[in-house]
Amino acid sequence: MSARRITLESLEVLDAIDRKGSFAAAAASLYRVPSKVTYTVNKLEEDLGVTLFRKEGRRSVLTPAGRLLLDQGREILEAADRLVENTRQLDRGWESRLRIALDAVFDFGLLVEVIEEFCRMQPGTELEIREEVLGGSWEAIAMGRVDLVVGAPDEPVDRRGLEVEPFQEIPWVFAVAPTHPLAQYSEPLSREQQLEYRAIVVKDSSRELPALSRNVFERQPRILVTNIEHKIAAQCAGLGAGFLPRDRVEHLLSDGVLIEVPLVEPPETIESYLVWRKDNRGRALNWFVDRLLQR
Question: Using alpha carbons only, how large is the chain's radius of gyration in Å?
Fold first, then answer.
C-alpha cells in the first residue's frame, strides 16, 4: 500500500475515536454517521494489514500499531493545519517565517522588545534568528539565507539587489584584564606594541566569500572564537587583548573587570547597517525594518 493512501480524513477519524473513546462518539464529534467512521477504520486496517483498535468494555482502544500510526499521524495533522494557516497568511501578505541575522557585535537584548511587540501582533509568523560575524552577515543576505540583517558592519562595495540603511554607530574600546601585562601601560600603545601580545578574535562566519578581519595584524598571535560572548570571556580571563564594542562591556569597565588601554591610534567608531533584499515585499520584513529604523 502506498503511504499516500493514509489520508488526512482517516487520521482525523483515528484521532476522534482515541479522544472520544468509541466509534459512535467519534462520529458525532465529526458530524458523520457511525457507519462512515466504521468503514474508514475497516478500510484502513485492510489496506495496512494491521488491527488498529481493540475493545475494552465499551471503549475502543488503540493497539500498539494503531498508537504508532496515530502518534505520528497527529504530527501530519498539525503540519497540515500549519500549511493551511501559512497559506492564508501568505495570501494576506504576512510571511510564515522571517529569518533575521544579527551581527555578532549587536546586543540581542536591544531587539527583545521589538520581537515581543511583533509576536503579540503577529503570532503566526515564525522568527528564525541567527548570529553572523563580519562578512558572514553580507554573505547570508546575498545568498538568500536570511531576509534581514541587523547591524551589518561596513558598507558593502556591491549593493546590487540590496536595500542598505545606516542603523547604529558602534564605538570600540581596546581592553584587557587587570592581570594582563598591557594593563600596566601608562603611555598610549602603538601598533608595534600590540603585535607582541595575543589577540582574541571572533572568526568571520562567511562560508563561501573570503573572510574579513578587523583590527588584527597578520603577524599577531591569536585565539579564534565563534562569538562575541566568548571573546569577552577570554579577555576577562586574561587570555589575550583586543577591541570590543564599548556598549557591550561598559559595565565590565566600570567594575574593573576589564581595563581600557589607551592607543596611539584610537579605535574608530564603526557604522552598522540594516540590510534586506529589494525583491522582498513581505509585511513582516517591512514591519521590522520600519520599527528598527524608528529606534
Answer: 29
Burial class from Cβ neighbours inside 10 Å (0-12, 13-18, 19+) for residue 98 reads buried
Contact criterion met (CB below 8 Å) for 15 and 70: yes
Would you state the pLDDT for residue 146?
A: 87
Residues 9 and 32: their CA atoms lie apart, in Å, by 12
- The four Cα atoms 272, 109, 244, 146 give a dihedral, to 10 degrees, of -50
pLDDT, tens only, 230-274: 999 999 999 988 889 898 899 999 999 999 988 888 877 888 888
Helix 8-20 with 64-92: angle, nearest 10 deg: 120
Query: What is the distance, to the nearest Å, from the Cα of residue 15 to the centroid of all Cα atoms in its chain?
Result: 33
Give the cell for residue 259. Answer: 581595563
Question: How long is the chain?
Answer: 295
Q: Mind listing the pLDDT tens digit for each residue in 175-223? A: 999 999 888 887 888 888 888 888 888 876 665 554 555 555 566 787 8
> How many helices, marked H, and strands, marked E, lie in the chain?
10, 12
Q: Give Cα separations from 56 to 22, 63, 69, 123, 124 (angstroms).
A: 10, 11, 19, 42, 41
